[in-house]
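How it folds:
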Amino acid sequence: MEVLNHRHFYEMLMSGAHEIIDHQKELNAINVFPVADGDTGNNLAYLMQMIMREGRWNDSSIETLETIKKACMRGSRGNSGMIFSQFIITMCNFLIRHQELNMEKFLDMCDESVESAVSAVSIPEEGTVLTVMKAWVESMKQESSTTTSIEAVLKKSYPEANLALEKTKSQMEVFRIHDVVDAGAKGFIHFLHGLIERKDVKADEDTESRSSLLLDETAHVMHESDELTFRYCSEFLIELKNGEDITSLKAHMADFGDSIVMVNDNDLGKVHIHTNEPADIAEMLVKKGKVVYQKVEDMKRQYESIYQRKAPIALVVDSACDLPKEWMDEHQIHMIPLNLEVNESTYLDKVTLEAGSFYELLDAGTDQPKSSQPSLLSVETLYQSLLMQYDSVISLHVSQKLSGTFDVCQKAAENIDPSRIHVVNSKTLSGAFGLLAYETAREIEKGKSFDEVKEALREWIPKSEILVSVKTLKHMIRGGRVSPLQGKVARLLNMKPIVSIDSEGNSLLYGKTFFSSSSLGKMYKQIQSIHDQHGIHEYVLLHAGSPEMMAECQEAMERITGSEPLYTTSVSPVIGGNAGKGAVSIAMILKEDNLRNGA
């Protein structure tokens, strides 16, 4: 083959994709850089599956190449996945400009693609996939003097690429210690083998039967000796504003983390970074365009699950559970973030959007923030990974009446292993949800059995209570939590209600009436009545951007109960979006069941 056309490239790409998918487990097993989380095979296989599923050949080869580029942007995950994505996107762009490639143009395409992959990485290091890519191109340039056949050059360069792969063992200390080659580089060798063999494969073949998109038993094989400098493996996909280029942020982002890879293609950009401040990264990126997708993995919690777990039962909550982060860490509680759309960009609640910056966005925006439940795939992936390390899982979630999160998690449990995963409707939210999670964590750490923990949780749910004093019903009306008629009455009479949750988990106006500006005083009277009837076992104080109110609340609650709050914290953005800035809430676990009927 002396000329490469679009169809030839397409067939080679599909063959290379299959080769990587076939070696997914092998690549997972040798993954120790940049973080030894054993998922390079998963990430590369996911990218290739996305390309094969979405990049079907059609009569317009240009359209096919454009589709492949989009699949690369959406499907790239992890350090190696991002590098591969930039490599393939650059090849596609080159082919869009040229219908056919002779040897000279083919080498130009490969050279340009490797340079683009190198430039995507903030700090390129020798001994990685980039080293093997560069050695491969140089070998082809040398071999091209002896032949005009593109196939022949590819075959002759393959041994040199393999030699470069073996050298990676001695180029980085981490590879010498573990006696392995770079997993991304090994993946590239398999990819080259597929290009050379050019197997007869179809894009619409059932690739999921060959390699699951979910984690398998080799996934996240983190090494016990590894130390994490940065906690969160973060990825963002951005629809860029006209003329914007995310690579201009590369130097600035280096202050926030490492393993930075940036991929650009026309109006789309994607960023991969290991960081301790994913919310700061998101804030930086929204200035460049609209964030349409993001994924953040907590590598610290993954590591603890494998090497430092405190109990055989995993506890999972969603981000509507308001428990201080340090408490989540102390009790190794796993969190599923809800999605929150603010000013057209999508965030992960409590992860890429924190309370402080959220209220600034809320004040600046005209539209009500929109929350949505996590994807089924993301929950299934979490459950499957947890069951590799734990005997069972308790998954506790925000009221089913207020969110679809419980339903998604219930479906995920049914798909994975319903006998080992127990999904619970808390019938509440925020601080009351946090108290239920805390009590559950304590029972787990006492060594209680799976069934005993489930029974204890069933007993606590009817004992939970939360009262919220809001400054305005505007956000609750927009979010559908309060009817427009109730809101109109409150506005006309300048009344501020106390909002609560009934026994089924629906929001209600406490006492079936409105209170005037002294709503906090009325709320304390309601709590005194609750304490007199049922007794308050534990309570917590929460605020929506109004920490200055907490001292007054604590003083009042100490007078009522004679005890200090278990903790004081801010509510999550997904809760604050409905309560509105300035809201104050008090959540309790009672000594006796409470009908929570607003009486």
Observations:
- The chain has a mean pLDDT of 88.
- Residues 150-171 form the longest helix (22 residues).
- The chain has 24 helices and 19 strands.
